[in-house]
Target: Lipopolysaccharide heptosyltransferase family protein
Amino acid sequence: MRLSAIGDVCHAAAMVNRIQQHWPDTELTWVIGKIEYQLVKLMPGIRFVIFDKSRGKLAVDDLRRELAGEEFDALLMMQVALRANWASRAIKARRRIGFDWARSKELHWLFANERVAPRAHAHVLEGFMDFADALGVPSVAEPRWSIPLEPEAESWAEAKAKQLGEFVVISPAASKQERNWLPERYASIANHLADKGKKVVLCGGPGPLDRETAKAILSHNPAIAENFVGKTTLHQLLGLIAKADLVIAPDTGPAHMATTVGTPVIGLYAHSNPRRTGPYRDLKRVVSVYDECIEAQFGKPWQSLPWGVRAKGKTLMEQISTEQVMQQVDELLTGNDNR
Model:
């Protein structure tokens, strides 16, 4: 059970692929959010049950009816939010495996009868892999992803990539305004990339914040070849990201989508610890001021605080300079980032 969000569903997909790799005959049911389902809906060998949170309490009733008369060998409770915990009561399972005590929040421990092994300072993806460990699934050297796309989406992405040539995706909008970088700095990075011979495209979801962020960037007249914000399906977006040379983004879903297809990511972080939520394969490319923000707010380093604690403030992202991001861009494009 992992309902949301896009980035976390990408992490969960790696755990699912691990089970399928080693236990191909396992019958898998994935309880998932309505939007997130659109990304992974073609993953083979999985029965998806959509949990539509917009229906409020009725969503739990829907889930109970959908799974009536079924009992599972194991329920992997991979979300600690109270909504997910409450919804899990509609699922009958002999083993109800939840997070360890340190990672349990919002009464999560009350709904589980087993817990994964404790792990200090785990990335979210590693935390999800702990559930496969609890089942006894053999380990893997590296996570792998298989998220098939609709043929029409792949064709669309191929056509756009051919039209663009070498290009970089900037996905500028996080889920909250305070986690976004400054529009004028994104514009400067777009111009810098254009000077390097790269086309730049903006991507993002259909929500108001995504559209407003794109509009603010475009108001600075940067060298943007295409604005796809709010104009793509998740499959089209993933197909386009797969063909990009680079993705630049704050802590948002497309950064983790890029990880699933092997596209390099430069992540921008101030509020959350990138060691926990950063693009899994590109943690060395992250531009982060999180450590400084945390020490300034709490008077101690992040290692001395509970894992996952967030820095608070509406202007923290301003501490990330254009020059820091340009340096990462230049090192990646010249192959000097020691990766």
The chain has two domains: 6-135, 152-334. The longest helix spans residues 6-22. DSSP finds 13 helices and eleven strands in the chain. Residues 81 and 251 are 19 Å apart (CA to CA).
